[in-house]
Specification:
- By secondary structure, the protein is an alpha/beta fold.
- It has a domain of 105 residues: Formyl transferase, N-terminal domain (Rossmann fold), CATH 3.40.50.170.
- Helices cover 37% and strands 22% of the residues.
- It has six helices and seven strands; from the N terminus they run E-H-E-H-E-H-E-H-E-H-E-E-H.
- The protein has a seven-stranded mixed β-sheet with strand order 3-2-1-4-5-6-7, with helices on one face.
- The protein starts with 7 loop residues before the first strand and ends with a helix.
- Bound molecules: glycinamide ribonucleotide.
- The site of glycinamide ribonucleotide has 14 residues, from helix 1, strand 5 and helix 6.
Length: 192
């Protein structure tokens, strides 16, 4: 992005609580932010994040996950109606097919609650605690056809203390997720 001409349009996919979505919406409303969120889609029609999107006047849709292809085809239709620069997964708990990634054709980012390449997939905090790791953390990476394996855009770590458990670790990591996701999006957008 050599010369910056207005904010970039992004869409967000969520599955539930939507605390990352909330923090991204909050950030995007700042004058200095380089992006605006114009569409939110959830595979869970009851996701709390959808209510927050509505409150924030952002177009949003809950699409029942009848099957991967059903969800992906409906989403693609909605995405293609917008002039998007980027799709961000924020607590989206489904794996997108390669066909979706190809058809969408714009970049996709994801936030993952571990220091990738460590602990792809689920139960990241449990795995870090079980392995007596000294650090946990979060990573924002590009989405490709392999789960949690695309290029890392930004990462931040937190110390694991003796007294930490899954809940306390989740809380600490979530806090840094909220911090790094907007930064990672801007870093990525300015590198385009
Ligand atoms: C976040 O910790 C996010 O990193 C994780 O789910 C949580 C969603 O929280 N995502 C994944 O594990 C994806 N593989 P949120 O709905 O409050 O943003």
């Amino acid at each position: 992005m050599e010369k910056y001409l207005g904010k970039k349009n992004i869409a967000i996919f969520i599955s539930g609580r939507g605390s990352n979505l909330k923090s991204l919406i909050k950030y995007s409303k700042k004058k200095k932010s380089l992006f605006k969120i114009i569409l939110v889609i959830s595979n869970n029609t009851k996701a709390d994040g959808l209510k927050y999107a509505t409150k924030s006047n952002i177009k949003n849709f809950g699409i029942k996950y009848r099957s991967k292809s059903y969800f992906e085809n409906r989403s693609l239709k909605l995405l293609k109606q917008q002039n998007l620069d980027l799709l961000c997964l924020a607590g989206f708990m489904k794996i997108l097919s390669y066909s979706f990634i190809r058809k969408f054709s714009k970049p996709i980012l994801n936030i993952h609650p571990s220091l990738l390449p460590k602990y792809k997939g689920l139960n990241t905090h449990l795995k870090a605690l079980r392995n007596n790791d000294k650090f946990a953390g979060a990573s924002v990476h590009k989405v490709n056809q392999k789960l949690d394996s695309g290029k890392i855009i930004l990462q931040k770590k937190v110390k694991i203390l003796k007294k930490d458990n899954i809940k306390s670790l989740e809380k600490k990591v979530l806090k840094i997720e909220h911090e790094i996701y907007p930064k990672a999006i801007e870093k990525f957008l300015t590198s385009l």
